[in-house]
Amino acid sequence: MAKALIIGAGGVAQVAAHKCVENKRVFTELCIASRTRSRCDELKHKLDGRGVPISTAQVNADNVSELVALIHKEKPDIVMNLALPYQDLTIMDACLETGVDYLDTANYEPEDTAKFEYKWQWAYQDRFRERGLTAILGSGFDPGVTGVFSAYALKHEFDEIHEIDILDCNGGDHGYPFATNFNPEINIREVTANGRYYEDGQFIETPPMAISSRYDFEGVGVRDMYLLYHEELESLAKHIPGVRRIRFFMTFGESYLTHLRCLQNVGMTSIEPILYQGIEIIPLQFLKAVLPDPASLGPRTKGKTNIGCIFTGKKDGVDKVWRLYNISDHEEAYREVGSQAVSYTTGVPAMIGASMVLTGAWKKPGVWNVEQLDPDPFMDALNRFGLPWIVDDNPAPVL
Ligand code: NDP
Q1: Residue 209 falls in which region: left (phi positive, over 0), alpha (psi -120 to 50) or beta
Q2: In this predicted model, what pLDDT tens digit does every residue of 183-235 receive, in sequence order?
């Protein structure tokens, strides 16, 4: 029926490719293209013989003309951008030039400024609409499933949503004193930035990790969590009518925080270039090179993730608090697709988002965040493809 071009061959792409092959009713052909072709070939090797023909290619996704040439050659129906947020705009440009639909899991961030914002990608709205093309932004777990959960809560469970607390708990243990579960550069840029949350029509900024709380997560236990700014706060504040407050909390262990503080104190998390033996290097990129590759954590990680949203609002005039979440197991994810659960919880929704466009359920010219589209078919697919959701009608609030 349809061919997808996956760009990137890291942890998330590995899961998405496995899941596309599992959903072969929709994905009848794949091309996996990335900067390092050998990683695409390794992935193809794992998936060959499962009924979906796979080709591979080398591409520098920072270069629009290389992307255009690849898309002309492979003729995909959708491009799934599972590389890094730095490549979002070049890949969107190539999709516009070749007339192909687009999907990603993280919003654009300039490589030389630790700042992510939707304005750059939202600016493509008219061009995608006029070309009759669909672009789906942020179809991972957070952003992604958290937006779909919000749309579902608004459609079925609430007349008004007043507050959304997104809680992201990774209770996994990989045995290293310090490692990140997805791309270290992106992860560290995110957690060292100032915190920010939405309240009464404006964003309130806090120093990094200044607001914390403790929560009892089913499947994991009691964990400390910290308020971070996360990209879906910007889109949910715009798209969930009447919402008064949105916050995002992520859990971190003591060892992670101690290492991060130390690395920050010595300047290793900086993105300002420095001269080292006559060569310009960026400390954070050097740090990435010495840290464990997130893809290598798969076989070592034990424990579970518990990610979801607590909604507060009104239904039929009565106050209501309601929670939707998913629990995923690192070892089960690794057994199934060879990646730990953080990649799993991102790669599955990426495949589902692409299948929504390819089957027509989310085929709508323009640039969309997932909460702007019908949540129902996506919610069904979460249950079918390995991320079943759990409802809690009486959740504990975040104190
Ligand atoms: P990885 O670092 O494991 O993989 C990134 C891949 O992109 C690598 O294969 C890399 O190639 C490739 N790549 C990087 N730059 C280029 C380029 N210029 N041209 C072509 N390929 C390139 O990252 P993850 O798989 O962990 O993350 C993928 C995306 O998912 C990121 O954008 C991340 O922010 C996002 N994410 C979203 C989440 C969500 O819930 N929404 C959660 C987790 C991640 P090479 O092998 O050569 O380095």
Answers
A1: left
A2: 888 888 888 889 999 999 999 999 999 999 999 999 999 999 999 999 999 99
For residue 14, give its domain range: 2-137
Asked, for residue 97, whether it belongs to a domain, the answer is yes
Pocket test for ligand 1, best of 91, 182, 236, 339 (most atoms within 8 A of CB): 182
Domain boundary among 82, 110, 137: 137
Does 132 have pLDDT greater than 90?
yes
Pocket test for ligand 1, best of 12, 58, 146, 291 (most atoms within 8 A of CB): 12
**386 part of a folded domain:** no
Q: Which of 137, 154, 180 is the last residue of a domain?
A: 137
Residue nearest to atom 23 of ligand 1 (CA): 183
| Domain presence at residue 291 | yes
Lowest mean pLDDT among 69-78, 82-91, 288-297: 288-297
Ligand 1 pocket residue status of 62, Cβ below 6 Å: yes
Q: Ligand 1 pocket, 313 CB below 6 A?
A: no
* Same domain for 208 and 105: no
Verify whether ligand 1 is closer than 6 Å to residue 189 (CB atom): no
Terminal CA-to-CA distance of the chain, rounded, Å?
Answer: 49
DSSP H helical ranges for the chain: 11-22, 37-47, 64-74, 88-98, 119-122, 125-131, 145-152, 184-192, 232-239, 254-265, 283-290, 330-337, 341-358, 375-384
Indicate whether 365 belongs to any domain: no
CB neighbourhood size of 131 (10 A)? 17
| Range in 221-225, 297-301, 375-379 with the lowest mean pLDDT | 297-301
The CB of 140 under 6 Å from ligand 1? The reply is: yes
Pairing of strands 304-315, 160-170: antiparallel
**How many folded domains does the chain comprise?**
2
**Does residue 84 have its Cβ closer than 6 Å to ligand 1?**
yes
User: Does pTM surpass 0.70?
Assistant: yes
Are 206 and 258 in the same domain? yes
Q: Compute, in angstroms, the gap from residue 14 CA to the centroid of ligand 1.
A: 10
Q: pLDDT class for 18, splitting at 50, 70, 90?
A: very high
DSSP 122-149: HTTHHHHHHHT-EEEE--BTTTBHHHHH
User: Does residue 12 have its Cβ closer than 6 Å to ligand 1?
Assistant: yes
